[in-house]
Amino acid sequence: MFLHDQERVVARNGVVATDETECSIIGRDVLKRGGHAVDAAVAAALCLGVVSPFYSGLGGGGFMLVRSSTGDSKVFDMREMAPGRASKGMFDKESSKKKDSPLSIAVPGELAGLYTAHKEYGKIPWESLVKPAENLARNGFIVSSFLSKTLASVKSTIMSNKELRSVFAPKGRLVSKGKTIYFKKLADTLASVSKHGMNDFYNGSIAQSLSNDIQKAGGIIKKEDFQKYRAITRKPLVANVFGYEIVTAPPPASGGAMLIL
Q1: Is 173 marked as binding a ligand?
Q2: Rounded-to-10 torsion of CA 24, 50, 74, 34
Q3: Nearest residue to 179 via CA among 155, 222, 147, 138
Q4: What pTM does this model have?
Q5: Which Pfam families would you find in this protein's record (predicted)?
């Protein structure tokens, strides 16, 4: 939990809050165009995957809790899934590999979850929600202070990897605060996502390319693992706490633990 002494933000029609101002603005603009809260969440999440790539993105997963105007709530579980070749004791002899090795990569669920939620609640065309993130990736975005510090903290990893260097250190040095980063390959992926939804990512050429690269690096994900992935719709946990009704995500999310506390 983080405490701050900034002024409260009060709005009548909607609020979008993210770690990056640029992404919050994108989400806000979606609401101004008449979009559903889920539309705004999709656009903002895809933006974060570009400008805050170490903490969000198409390669990850998460949860989305949606409460409709009728009072009904549901949770979209888009957590990553272990590949079919994973086994219970696969990290017993080399426990360090379960944290940041190619063997630890799981099948990403974010895109499937966002697409599934949009399909149910979205009011604005999917393409227009993906386009802002694609534009940022292709045309470049300014490195924030936070991203600059993050890059510095993993400098050795970046400099030892050709693909990472091409993006974060194209001239042999880490890009610094105020400089511009371009994600051309991510932009191409987002262009495909804009046009084909989640299909190419989980069933087409993107799934094949990702699985090939992961296997070359020592991972065990196959294209079939991408094809089998499905986001799960779950019922939320609901509890009365000190007179307030709390609606939160069930396992495997940590909502239950929060209610116990």
Answers
A1: no
A2: 40
A3: 147
A4: 0.93
A5: G_glu_transpept
